[in-house]
Amino acid sequence: MFIKSVCTVLLVFSSLTIVSQENLYSSSTIPENLKKSANAVVRLNDIDVSLESSKKMVIKKKSLITVLNKEGDDNIDAYVFYDDDVHIKELEVLVYNKFGDLIKKIKEKDFKDISAVDGGTLYSDSRVKYLEYTPIDYPYTLEFTCETETGNTAFIPPFSPITDYFVSVETSKYTLNYPEDITIRKKEKNLEGFQFEKEDTIGKLVYKVKNIEVYKPEDYSPSFRNIIPKVLLAANQFTYEEVYASVDDWNSMGIWFQENLLNGRNHITEETKKHILKLVEGIDDPIEKAKIVYKYVQDNTRYISVQVGIGGMQPISALEVDKVKYGDCKGLTNYTKSLLEVVGVNSNYTRLYASPSSQISVDKDFVSFGGQTNHVILNIPQENQDDIWLECTSQKVPFGFIGEFTDDRDVLVVTPEGGKIKHTKKYTTNENSQTIEGSFALSDDGTIDVTANVVSKGIQYDNKYWIETETARDLDVYYKKRWSYINNITINKKDITNNKDSVALIENIKFLATNYSKKVGDRMLFNVNALNRNTNIPDRYRARKYPLKINRGFIDVDEVEIKLPKSYKVEALPNKVVIENKFGHYKEELTVKDEKTLIYKREFMVNDGEFPKEDYNGFRNFYKEVTKQDNSKVALIKI
Amino acid sequence: MKSLFLFMLLSFALTAYSQNYDFGKISKEELQEKFNPLDSSASATYLYKYRRTYFVYRQEEGFSIVTDVHERIKIYNQEGFDYANRIINLHKYHNEDEKVMGLKGYTYNLVDGKIEETKLDKHEVFNVEQSKYTDQEKFTMPNLKEGSVIEYKYKIESPFYWNVEDFVFQYDIPVKKIEASFEAPEYFNFKFNAKGFLIVNPKNTTKSDKITFRYKEREGGNGFGNGVVRTAYSSSNLDFITNITSYDLSNIPALKEEPYVNNIDNYRSAVQYELSYTKFPQSPIKYYSTTWEDVVKTIYTSSDFGNELDKTGYYEDDVDALIGTVSDPLKRVALIYSLVKSKVKWNGYTSIYANDGVKKAYKDHVGNAAEINLMLTSMLRYAGLKAYPVLVSTRQHGIPIFPTREGYNYVVTYVKLDEGIMLLDATSKFSLPNVLPTRALNWQGRIIAEGGGSELVDLYPKQDSKSTVFMMIDLEENGDIEGNFRSMKTSHDALTYREQYVETDQDQFLEELENKYNGLEISDFKVTNALDLSKPVIESYKFFKESQADIIGDKIYFSPLFYLRTLTNPFKLEKREFPVDFVYPSSSTYRVSINLPEGYKVESTPEPVALMLPDNLGVFKYNVLVTELAVQLVIDTQINTPIVSPLYYDTLKEYFKQLIEKENEQIVLTKI
């Protein structure tokens, strides 16, 4: 009797599992709305994190992903990073065909096992095991099971159901179990509008979300990182590479960081000290001293990354950098800071998230050791003016110039009094300028002879300063690409001056282009804007989803004198154009100076800012109009 | 006496100006040099590269191969800092591996007129397990500055004596001096192959060598624990000849990338040594490879090639069922070709050998290039056709000029029919007979006959890839255009199109197409024959695009190809060193018919033109016909030869210049 009932229960239970599993393994059960534009569908993602103590964390992950096409192969996410402190307990993949039949079983030993280093890293003790799978047919479903155990509790994985663009989610679940004596901080982002379930009791936190359609990339939109739903998590007590921490806010995080990871790493040899002190002899102004030290660092070190154990977060000592003359962002920043100490200038080690495409801030209200930063720079606090920020990994950027990589965002500054959130330098529209003063002479055979002086500042400087060190051959190709709308260019002069004091790049260019104008019978047509044509119109979307975000503004001002060919005179000129709107403005005017000379003036300005998605079309139309005006032509007729 | 004096003076002068390449003997001149006088754009230069590869014998382990390396590099500026990073790849297989020994390195700087040296520390050298078959020894030189000279040396000992790393003589930075040598005992016969644009001439010499074998014997005693036991040592010598090839090169220019080059390594100067046979005393000759016949034989008799070709059991039932009632050979080929394409998917690996075997590939529905095309060949044979495997070197792999086993890395299938010959590759779903995927289009392949003989076959397609575009356009008075677009593509153009179209989401494909033409607005988009490979793939849509004409005064100016016209010349460099690679012959045709806005008539049109490249390399024909209400544009272009010699570069550049100018010429309309 007893046995029978157990059997029945088992039977019922197992048939239930089979039914529910079949539902997920077969690709025919994917809801239509999740298939739309999707490369892959996360049928189920179940992450179970057990923070057993501040010294031990076990992460179990099970995910079922159905891949719909070739692009989706990159979304199987069947990999796991490990090192001396992260042990893999279980790793397995099962592959199912579209009908839900099991077709392949892949064990841990069949995973590829390689050193996890990127291009800029010489050595890292981090390794990765990943699956290399060739699908036979689409769709297919992959069941990934992985369990790891680690003594590092500083990084609790976030709940982040959306893994990529073009990947939808059917169900994603996250569980965190933790001891009662540990406090968990959490920060929920972009959860509005989703079907969420949440369970928050002492010692246990559960999130579950269902039915998220794909995210598609769009031009001029906020960064992916800032739009996806996410819950960030951190514990107030944690261990990092066997160093224990107890922190509640950014201030105490800063103190802990200073005491455990920075203190004692600032020694400099007497020899170097003497050398540095000699360099700043007779100089009192702290900024001038800082400039000299910064130049010394730029001239004597280079960026090489070596990551071993605690070195993932702790800089190598200033002594070591002094010896080998290289380091990563942490090591070079700490070295610069240590040298500044020698000359009596205070500076602070600063952690932040570096990303050139858009500015990503450290969250003021959510304190965590990791996960929010990927780079280190140096902060020199100032009393009555803006702080100075130093990028210590580049041998080329001017003192105090940080550019797109780290501008305009909240960062964690580790001061002797504790951690503080500060905001880095923002480059405003008017600072990001490009000024062209030029002239071109058009000859009877249609050739133009162009002279241009281009001065770029701010972010426009950042975009171009690297050309200073290009070889003549590469520079030739660079200019031909920059003016790719003009064919048959011969560049005759390319003088580039990088003025690091005023942070300006000055280009003096001369070039010839044959057949620039088009001859049509007795007429000659030519485009007045030879030097700065906008050719890029933002992409069109059938249904725009995200707000319009312009990360950085800019202003271009051009003034060009045009000499007409001997045998032609003006037949028709384009009209003056002024466009003004909330995004910026565009002004274009062609005036006759004398019979043979025209003056072309153009000003194009776009402001940074965020606008509702409804404004995107207007913004795109603005660019379309600018592109059209930049193509306006002058008609000449034979005298 | 006088002449002796002169001689001494002369030799003194020579020494004073000659470089000292001994390790550590860095000169101030080297440190002071600000740029390479022969190539001022170089960010760094190999001042000296030394390599000696030779054999050593150890009684317990047998032969192994040792390579001594010594390099001295001048770093002129920050762009050259990367040359201070060194990665040494070390192979391993089963329990044997290559080892680095005696690594020593120094960075030299000139400080206040004095040479300062910084040693590379042991703990600054890292060993990384890169994969199951490769370890890496990595380091970067310390205390590096603009102007530094770095120098290091090390030794690699390898048990894999049949695998000699290529001697490379040309790099992306210039080299001032190279000294290299390869020394092999007479028992090892190596094939020597030089490639690249720069000619190298080795010097061949020999030297006498010997191996001493030592023996140890215990003698004496009576077996009962009595008597004196002695250990006696004896030795015998084996004398032999060592063959040496050595290289001494100076001032080798940097090799620079150019667009439209299939693989720059084809032109890099290098020498390969491949073991062709070993002949040890009192042993028979063991062949590795020496002629193409041997190469083919080695490959053919290898169990991962020939045997795989002979297996039939795993597919017999399927193939019987498929072709049972079909007797037409051509139809049989078609059926079997699509069977393999649909059954087995390519896993992205190139190889001339089966990895898991054809049987497993067939069962698991996935395999490498050899498995797939050996299977195809085997099935075709089984069906009574004359089918042969063809060895190919992929574009990425370079061109096989010399007979080596490593020369080929890919397999396709060759079929001989009464109607003619056919090349097949079942790794791509969309490839067709005689339309191989681009990766396989690399010069010639080698057909392997049943007996093991071989002959060459040209892999490039004989037929043009054709692309035909028809457009009907209404031009509005404000310069906007609206109309219908229809294109037909065959062969490689169709292959490329299908690969992109079929594997992308349709919405995304459309958005990408619209954005490629900068805001073209498309509706009624349709693709026909995307999966029916027997027909050309046809794309059609309706479109709208703003401001495609200039309106100046009462005239309208436009170029009749509108958004499809070529805008920039792909050939931007002033000079060209290497052949231009167009991949396959192609022809394209445009038929554009433009309805004029009401109230306008044609004032002028561009002149018709026909441009010809020399030696029938290519043609461009352009013509505009005018009727009362419409304009017809007809353009025909052809590139007949996939590979064009750099001798034609100037002509080719000029041809493209004129072609682009013609496509951009304007039609003028005027108000009636």
**CATH uppermost class of the largest domain in chain A:** Mainly Beta
- Largest interface (C-beta under 8 Å): A-B, 66 and 66 residues
Assign an overall shape of chain B: globular
Q: What CATH first level of the largest domain in chain B would be assigned?
A: Mainly Beta
Spatial order of the strands forming the largest sheet of chain A: 5-4-9-2-1-10-13-12
* CATH topology assignment of the largest domain in chain A: Immunoglobulin-like
CATH architecture of the largest domain in chain B: Sandwich
**Helicity level of chain B, as a percent range?**
10-25%
CATH topology of the largest domain in chain B, by name, is Immunoglobulin-like
Total strands of chain B: the figure is: 37
Low-confidence stretches of chain A: 1-22
Radius of gyration over C-alpha positions of chain A, nearest whole angstrom: 30 Å
- Spatial strand sequence of the major β-sheet of chain B: 6-5-9-2-1-11-14-13
Largest beta-sheet characterization of chain B? 8 strands, mixed
Number of helices of chain B: 11
Helix content of chain A: 10-25%
Q: How many domains of chain A, as an integer?
A: 3
Percentage of residues in DSSP E strands of chain B? 35-45%
Strand content of chain A: 35-45%
Short description:
Chain A is of the alpha+beta class and 639 residues long.
Walkthrough of the structure:
In chain A, helix 6 crosses helix 8 and helix 7 crosses helix 8. Helix content of chain A is 19%, strand content 39%. Chain A has an 8-stranded mixed beta sheet, with no helix packed on it. In chain A, strands 27-28-26-25-32-36-35-34 form an 8-stranded mixed beta sheet. Chain A has a 5-stranded antiparallel beta sheet with strand order 22-21-20-23-24. Chain A is globular. Chain A folds into 3 domains: 2-240, Immunoglobulin-like, CATH 2.60.40; 250-423, C8orf32 fold (Roll); 429-638, Jelly Rolls. Chain A is built from 11 helices and 38 strands. Chain B contains 11 helices and 37 strands. In chain B, the strands form 8 sheets. Chain B has an 8-stranded mixed beta sheet. In chain B, strands 26-27-25-24-31-35-34-33 form an 8-stranded mixed beta sheet. Chain B has a 5-stranded antiparallel beta sheet with strand order 21-20-19-22-23. Chain B is globular and about 125 Å long. The chains are: A alpha+beta (639), B alpha+beta (672). At the A-B interface, strand 6, helix 10, helix 11 and strand 38 of A face strand 7, strand 8, strand 17, helix 10 and helix 11 of B.
